[in-house]
Amino acid sequence: MQFGIFSVGDVTPDPTNGRTPSEHERIKAMVAIALKAEEVGLDVFATGEHHNPPFVPSSPTTMLGYIAARTEKLILSTATTLITTNDPVKIAEDYAMLQHLADGRVDLMMGRGNTGPVYPWFGQDIRQGLNLAKENYALLRRLWREDVVNWEGKFRTPLQAFTSTPRPLDGVPPFVWHGSIRSPEIADLAAFHGDGFFHNNIFWPAEHTRKMVQLYRRRYAHYGHGRPEQAIVGLGGQVFMRKNSQDAVREFRPYFDNAPVYGHGPSLEEFTEQTPLTVGSPQEVIDRTLSFRTTVGDYQRQLFLMDHAGLPLKTVLEQLDLLGEEVVPVLRKEFAVDRSASVPDAPTHGSLRAVQEVPAA
């Protein structure tokens, strides 16, 4: 199991004092959070990609390249790479460059995002979102796996004898997850290519998550990549902790009540009952996270959202201390209990390179 955090990079006023951080402060805070993640022993830091206020991470490779230079072990990922509105040629080149700079500590999560206006901003039609995702990703795979590409499609100009540079490190492309909350077509796309499927398990009830992951597992087996339990699954989650659960609820309530994504709707109690959001003690977070295994089976990656809704950096860093010291060590131990030997670990550059180097029988 890999454990880590993901950030959407929102710039949100702190409802307890009305102060809004500057973009500069928020960008620097995301870096500090990534460095803290490595310090407390987490495995992954992932950043979203947005091109509109109130979000700041419009250039994930810039941020991740900077973090790569200041870390040694942390896997650097995206929480969404917009496969629909980014040019697949630019994705291929940017992330191969990042892969070299990070010595392979890079993977990507492909997605369509949740901001409709981004499509016309980048010259695309939102009504073609699924078709764009499929065609662009098919081209990206070829760019990483073929030294010379001749290609013609519907949504961009043709390529003739094109070579994407730099080539992937060691000839091994970054591992790709496909992120989705509600689109079975994306689960099927991940399964078709034998890639990972990341269900951003933060807004929906457990039964919806179960159905999406089961669909992906079935299709993974259907396309001949292995048994359903061998499919590569990741989940999101949201937590807020204090030593005492009552203190956690009291402190987090104003942030929840005013958060742009879920404020002024269901109560905190309703939301924690109906979704994976967990607000309480470290033990409550452990128990809730372990229950995800009952929902989806053994899986490979668990990422937590912890730096949203206007929470100050000091508070987020305290949350990471609790996560690294009291929660993740227990989760590592408990998730290993009765885990079948047939369930693979999350792919890394090293493991993918080792598979590539195995001579054919």
Task: Please summarize what this structure is.
It contains 12 helices and 13 strands. With 361 residues, the chain is of the alpha/beta class.
Description:
The two termini are 30 Å apart. The chain has helices spanning 23-39, 60-69, 88-101, 118-121, 129-145, 184-193, 206-222, 245-258, 268-274, 282-296, 313-336, 349-357, and strands at residues 2-7, 44-47, 75-78, 81-82, 107-111, 149-151, 159-162, 175-180, 196-199, 233-235, 239-241, 278-280, 301-305. 44% of the residues lie in helices and 14% in strands. The longest helix is centred in the last third of the chain and has 24 residues, at 313-336. It has twelve helices and 13 strands. The strands form three sheets. A nine-stranded parallel sheet has the order 3-2-1-13-10-9-8-5-4, with helices on one face. A two-stranded antiparallel sheet has the order 6-7. A two-stranded parallel sheet has the order 11-12. The chain is globular and about 60 Å long. With 361 residues, the protein is an alpha/beta fold.
**Any idea what the shape is?**
globular
Major sheet strand order = 3-2-1-13-10-9-8-5-4
Category by helix and strand content: alpha/beta
Calculate the terminal CA-CA distance, rounded to whole Å.
30 Å
Q: Per DSSP, what share of the residues sits in E-state strands of 2 or more residues?
A: 5-15%
The radius of gyration computed from the alpha-carbon positions, rounded to a whole number of angstroms, is: 20 Å
How many helices? Answer: 12
The total count of strands amounts to 13
- Low-confidence segments, given as residue ranges, are none
What order do the helices and strands follow? EHEHEEHEHHEEEHEHEEHHEHEHH
The biggest beta sheet reads: 9 strands, parallel
Q: How much helix is in the residues?
A: 40-55%
Average pLDDT value? 93
